[in-house]
Amino acid sequence: MAGFPTNSIIFKYNLKIANMAIIDTWTKEQFLQCISDLYKEAFGVRPRGINYSEWSVEELRTEWKRLEKLAIDEFWYNEQ
Predict the structure, then answer these.
(1) How far is the C-alpha of 51 from the C-alpha of 24, rounded, in Å?
(2) CA-closest candidate to residue 47, choices 32, 69, 29, 58
(3) Average pLDDT of every residue of the chain
(4) What share of the chain is helix, strand, coil (3-state, %, to 5)?
(5) What is the pLDDT of residue 60?
(6) pLDDT tens across 53-74, in order?
(7) Is the CB of residue 13 less than 8 Å from the CB of residue 41?
């Protein structure tokens, strides 16, 4: 994805809005392996006090999409 640093979670998983179908096939384990990284991309720190392992796959998917939007917005805000 042009414009993102290669160490960015967005770059690593290539989850552009047009390619969101990728996460529609993810298992709970796949979300749990990656969501902490995306949270850090969005907020600059790892999540604390959030027990993602208790969330359903649908809840994780919704959270992923929310965090992804925040991370993209943060990236573009910092680029200005």
Answers:
(1) 21
(2) 32
(3) 80
(4) 70, 0, 30
(5) 96
(6) 999 999 999 999 999 899 888 7
(7) no
Cα–Cα distance for residue pair 40/18, rounded to 1 Å: 23
Euclidean distance between CA atoms 39 and 10, whole angstroms:
11
User: Which residue type occupies 13?
Assistant: Y
Q: In the chain, where are the structural domains located?
A: 9-79
> Which residue type does 38 have?
L
pTM score, whole prediction: 0.69
In this predicted model, what pLDDT tens digit does every residue of 3-26 receive, in sequence order?
555 556 555 555 455 455 678 889
- 43, 71 contact by CB (below 8 A): no
